[in-house]
From TrEMBL:
SUPFAM superfamilies: MurCD N-terminal domain (SSF51984), MurD-like peptide ligases, catalytic domain (SSF53623), MurD-like peptide ligases, peptide-binding domain (SSF53244). The keyword Cell membrane does not apply. The gene is murD. This is UDP-N-acetylmuramoylalanine--D-glutamate ligase. It is found in: Cytoplasm. Its main location: cytoplasm. Residues 308-421 form the Mur ligase C-terminal domain. Keywords: ATP-binding, Cell cycle, Cell division, Cell shape, Cell wall biogenesis/degradation, Cytoplasm, Ligase, Nucleotide-binding, Peptidoglycan synthesis. Gene3D superfamilies: Mur ligase, C-terminal domain, Mur-like, catalytic domain, NAD(P)-binding Rossmann-like Domain. Cell wall formation. Catalyzes the addition of glutamate to the nucleotide precursor UDP-N-acetylmuramoyl-L-alanine (UMA). Its EC number is 6.3.2.9.
Length: 444
């Protein structure tokens, strides 16, 4: 069988290694430049590849195509592929076909995916289960299946990956929230994006679990219109539940199966309202797989948060510096500001994906004393938020952004890097942006 892989990032290379191992004839095609380390891997494994172009004839002769989540459907190549009727799948579909004997816990949502994935993995690992954390966080799912198969896979999945599944079926699916993001890929229609997120449950049966946030209006509306087949378990901060996760009397409760998990919200490792949701989702996932309540409680207490996601960096002359570089949309910034209890100097900006900043205006007015704009084009932030904060400063590099923020902060304030934007104007990715922030803070 001839398999063509479009895109040679981590997911494409993982798919190539797995396909080669399973005896497929594999060809990798990337329209851009392939990283040297990936080229070496392809060469060592005897996998044919091309970069800087797409050989249409070779691609269109494939029996099946594995498409990188980054390639939009409206590209000329994909339109030709669809026209010719070549079957297209995502890397998670390929990996799932070769790991059906394992238990799959898949996590999606507009915000909080990485944190919840890492927290769920922490719970499973602390329980002594042979678990791998894969997907948008860490190694690709396919690479893990090819190189170090596990009994449990905790997978962070994006809507783009879900768009090209066929039979992919998680034993446990978690849907955290749905807020506008990537709408440019969904014809600017929210309902298309919602449908895409719900694909996580499309192949589930009554033996599987669907864990969801009952407080999210988009999720509630969709479930009312289109019920799903799996066992649904809600979590909420609004009211007690017979089954599911809820907060009552400042305690987190997980009522799943016959062993309730109850603990004080003040004992949770992750702080902030949004993390109550993430903690409930991860805890419920643990209970569906019969992990004991003591282990879940212990794990929710001992978890260390992720790099670039509300990561504490340092305190300098009474000013706390927090790296939330992974906040690449407005909703993530809303969560970050919502959890702040002290005055904030906010560093934000980058490549604006058509952001609607109105969602954070109230929090900016209430909590932000100054905004440091960090980007090539800072106009959208000025236009949206200049009336909501007294001070706005323009910068086009991290050193100036950090210095300006420190000068404007008083003892007891927080300097928060929470950009609301992609990083591609000044940095390779959000990780590089976050690392640069930490370097400049340490240089103060």
């Amino acid at each position: 069988m001839k398999l063509v892989i479009l895109g040679a990032g981590e997911s494409g290379i993982g798919a190539a290694l797995l396909a080669k191992q399973k005896g497929f004839e594999v060809f990798v095609s990337d329209g851009g430049v392939i990283k040297d380390i990936y080229k070496q891997e392809l060469a060592v494994n005897g996998i044919e590849f091309e970069e800087g172009r797409h050989s249409w004839k070779t691609i269109l002769e494939a029996d099946e195509i594995v498409k990188s989540p980054g390639i939009p459907e409206k590209s000329e190549l994909m339109q030709k592929v669809r026209e010719m009727g070549v079957p297209v799948i995502s890397e998670i579909e390929l990996a799932w076909r070769h790991s059906k004997e394992a238990k799959i816990i898949a996590i999606t949502g507009s915000n909080g995916k990485s944190t919840t994935t890492a927290l769920t993995y922490h719970i499973f690992e602390q329980a002594g289960l042979n678990t791998a954390m894969v997907g948008n966080i860490g190694l690709s799912y396919a690479r893990q299946v090819a190189t170090a198969p596990a009994d449990y896979y905790v997978i962070e999945v994006s809507s783009f990956q879900l768009d090209d599944i066929v039979e992919f079926k998680p034993d446990v699916a978690i849907l955290l929230n749905i807020t506008p993001d990537h709408l440019d890929r969904y014809e600017y229609k929210m309902e298309n994006y919602v449908e895409s997120k719900f694909r996580i449950a499309k192949n589930q049966t009554e033996n599987d679990y669907f864990i969801y946030c009952e407080d999210d209006p988009e999720i509630r509306n969709h479930l009312a219109k289109k019920p799903i087949y799996s066992k649904t378990i809600p979590f909420t901060i609004m009211e007690p539940k017979k089954e599911g996760g809820f907060i009552a009397n400042e305690q987190l409760n997980i009522q799943v199966k016959d062993e309730p998990v109850i603990m004080s919200i003040y004992d949770l490792a992750l702080k902030g309202k949004h993390n109550l949701y993430n903690s409930m989702a991860a805890g419920i996932a643990g209970r569906t797989m019969d992990i004991r309540k003591e282990k879940i409680r212990e794990s929710l207490t001992s978890f260390k948060s992720l790099e670039h996601r509300m990561e504490y960096v340092a305190t300098i002359r009474g000013v706390d510096f927090i790296n939330d570089s992974k906040a690449t949309n407005v909703n993530s910034v809303w969560f970050a500001l919502e959890s702040m209890e002290r005055p904030v100097v906010l560093i934000m900006g980058g490549v604006d994906k058509g952001n609607d900043y109105s969602a954070i205006r109230e929090l900016v007015t209430e909590k932000v004393k100054a905004i440091i704009c960090l980007g090539v084009d800072n106009r959208p932030i000025h236009e949206a938020l200049s009336k909501d904060t007294k001070v706005m400063v323009n910068t086009d590099n991290m050193a100036d952004a950090v210095k300006n923020a420190f000068q404007l902060a008083d003892k007891g304030d927080v300097v928060l890097l929470s950009p609301a934007c992609a990083s591609f104007d000044l940095f390779k990715n959000y990780e590089e942006r976050g690392r640069k922030f930490k370097e400049e803070v340490k240089a103060l």
